[in-house]
Amino acid sequence: MKKKKEITMTRNEALILNQVLTNVRISGMSLSSRRNLIGLKIELGKITKAVEDFQKESIEAHKPGNFEELQSDQSEKGKKAFSALVNDLEAKVREVLNPYCEENVTISFQGITSEDFEKLTEINDLTLAAYEFLNLKLL
């Protein structure tokens, strides 16, 4: 069993790690390593939810008051205006979301043994990039 460590990564990395772990099977690992990965997955889920909430808040903050009116205008001119509005809204949200996602977060993680990491890689069809990413974050 590895002792508890702190994992520091950007929110973007946390989103990626959360997605990778979503598709990983852990059945062949020791009980303690499975529990530790489940705990990590829960913490990553909280970060993912926080990013999603931040994105929703950013959209609402930048959405103009006439958004629904423009959205419902089905004329050719209305469709073009709405499309331009959506593009502008997406750009404004990216301006605030990208820096937010590049900020570091720290998660406490009990870790897994190198033996369990090898089991994890044996029972999962990981790409080389996923293997490297997991190796850097979990060991």
Average the pLDDT over all residues and give the rounded result: 92
Question: Class by helix and strand content?
Answer: mainly alpha
Which regions are unreliable across 5 or more consecutive residues at pLDDT < 50?
Answer: none
Main sheet record: 2 strands, antiparallel
State the distance separating the first and last CA atoms: 11 Å
Order of helices and strands: EHHHHEHH
Layout of helices and strands, plus pairs?
Layout: E1 5-10, H1 11-22, H2 31-62, H3 67-72, H4 76-102, E2 104-109, H5 114-123, H6 128-138
Antiparallel strand pairs: 1-2
Helix pairs in contact: 1-2, 2-4
Brief summary of the model shown:
71% of the residues lie in helices and 9% in strands. With 139 residues, the protein is mainly alpha-helical.
Question: How would you characterize this protein structure?
Answer:
This protein has six helices and two strands. It has helices at 11-22, 31-62, 67-72, 76-102, 114-123, 128-138, and strands at residues 5-10, 104-109. With 139 residues, it is mostly helical. The chain starts with a strand and ends with a helix. The model has no long low-confidence stretch (mean pLDDT 92).
Q: Any descriptors?
A:
single chain; 139 residues; mainly alpha; two-stranded antiparallel ribbon; 6 helices; 71% helix; 9% strand
